Structures are given as C-alpha cells and as structure tokens.
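User: Here's a chain of 256 residues. Predict its fold as tokens.
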Amino acid sequence: MSLTESCCNTPPVQDAQWHNKGEQVALSQQIAGEERTTYRTGPKDSKRGLIAIYDIFAYHPTTYQFFDRIAESHGGFQLSAPHIFTKGGYPPDQMGDSAKLMAWIGANGDYKGNHIDEIIRVAVEDLRKDGCTSFSIFGQCWGALMSVKAASEEGNPFLAAGGPHPSFFSIETVKDTKAPLIILASKDEADMVPVIDSIKHKNFPVEPFHKRFDNMHHGWTGGRGDWSQPDQFQAGLEAVDLLSGFFAKAASASKL
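Assistant: Prediction complete.
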C-alpha cells in the first residue's frame, strides 16, 4: 500500500474554529480492558446510523464540523465517531517524515492490532440500541481505509463505505468490500477511477461513486481543512452532500 505523499507534508490547520453540535459519550463496552468514548451527533430519532473515522490528526474543529453537517444532512443520521487515538493524533512537528508517519500508523492505527475493529462493532451496537436499523461507515484519509476494512468483514452490517481524500486505496485494498464505496479524491491522490471501477461488477444495490476535487488538497475535510477559505468551505459542503446523499440512498435501497 502506498501513502499519499501530501499526507506526510501537509500539516493540520491550527486556527480552525467550530462550535460542536454533538458530545462525547462513553461506549457501552470496554475495549481491551479500557473505557472508550465516541463523538455522537445528529438527530436522536433517526434510524440511520453512521460510523465516522477521523484522520491521523484525530478530532479537529473542521473534522467536527464535517461530521456535524453530515449528521444533519439528507434527513439526518445518528453519527458516531469513536475516539481511536486516545494518546493524541499524529504530532504535527513530525510532518515531512514518511517513515515516522508509517511507523506511527503501524503502532496506533492498525485495524486489528489497535482494536479498531472491536471499537467499530461496539459503536454500531450502541447505535442499534438507540434505534438505528441501518448502518454505513466512512472515514478521512487513513480513516477511509479503516471503513473499507470494516465493510470487507464477513457479516458486517454496513450498506456503504468510503470517504474523502483516502490514503492506501488500491484495487487490492478494496477487492473484498461487501458494500458499495464512495470515493471523493483530492488533486493529491492517485487516479481512483480504476479503483472504483474494480468493484462495479459486484452489482451492489447502489452504484459505487467517485468524484475528484481537482482544486482541493489532501485532507481538506479534516484536520488539514481551513473552511474559513470560501473554496474549501464550498467543496466541503459539496462533499457533505455527496456523502450523506450516498448513505441515504444506500439506506433506502436496503428496504426494497
């Protein structure tokens, strides 16, 4: 798997601001003997659940805004964004060193080794207890890969997966997905059309979707996003609409 080069070189935005609409709540089960929390947002009467996986900088004002807006779009979703990097996200002062970044991801962001699979399962069950009957999952950058890994598990509940500016995406990493993917690439990722085309033969109820934002940099919807800039804000709102629309369509298709 290859890392998007700009993932190593683009630092997080330091002065972004957003007033969170949701709140941190405890997951109902311990993970590897530890209490864990998740950011919950969106209308509590929605029956559509979303799992969101942040990027390597963990929670960030732009990330919260992105999650809050998705949770309120296309009729609303109960969104749960688990706190995975409890020791903090990737240190910005180590930007530019791809070896250090890969080592950090290996130590902190391994799907099985860091119990991310278990965290996701508990977050889903908590959404189910709160009335959700359908589920999709998405992530940003590294988080998008986590969403595909979750959607590739046998018996997983997800109707759709994917996310914006994905890292480590290839035909190989998506080949086992059991759900249609939405890929919103930036100008910095490799061509994702072959990746999305490689799963279209699976005849999902919803057609896999791809759009490239040629005027956006890697990470614009998350820690690297500065939505005080009008172009980033407008592209962010478009990403919100595309993702929430895709997940709403997947939820509707599941009832046919």
